[in-house]
């Protein structure tokens, strides 16, 4: 499932391509991917322009010039492609937004959705339960340490809890724990202040590095996209079961913590 870095990468690429552009045609291939009747969706979206694209946690928000907001969550298996018809991947498209000769294709929305809201206040209600943005300038190490002290769950289970922090999932929680040298099964409220501080700085480094590397999703956003998926080769433990630990050489282990697959080094992460 796309996490914060993947969605931030999409946001940047979308702003480069569709900011200020008019949506000239709308095609809905799967009605379950939207939350209003198809005729209403088309009426409120077609012939309107995208003012900006923003991100909240693992969601993207498309702000249109008529105050309509399209709220996207790709969920498991969802992705996007932007280009002309001849460049389109040979995959089933659930939604297509056209910008004259180019199109934004929403693919793999088996569980994901593109919901329409009239007014930002209604959209924000859908996001009320989300925790702080880990890369927000207001989210300091002191704030994180304070939050950590009240959480009895494991590092793995708590980091992926969207009500605790927003945008972190299986991949980056494992990478953060490894970078900080902390076992993912440890209890968050049992970390010392230096350990909690180390985890906070690990979070900052990993997420920023992943955004700068295009995240770990393998499908390019457009035909000339060479950035998306660049973090795949930089993952140190995630999906590296049986490979040597880049720090000590021991085998990377795979286990389940709170029903979440988890990768770690049993030697480096105590």
UniProtKB/TrEMBL annotation:
Its EC number is 3.2.2.23, 4.2.99.18. Keywords: DNA damage, DNA repair, DNA-binding, Glycosidase, Hydrolase, Lyase, Metal-binding, Multifunctional enzyme, Zinc, Zinc-finger. InterPro entries: FPG_cat, FPG_N, H2TH_FPG, Ribosomal_uS13-like_H2TH, Znf_DNA_glyclase/AP_lyase, Znf_FPG/IleRS. The keyword DNA repair applies. Its cofactor is Zn(2+). SMART domains: Fapy_DNA_glyco (SM00898), H2TH (SM01232). This is Formamidopyrimidine-DNA glycosylase. The lineage of its organism: Bacteria, Bacillati, Bacillota, Bacilli, Bacillales.
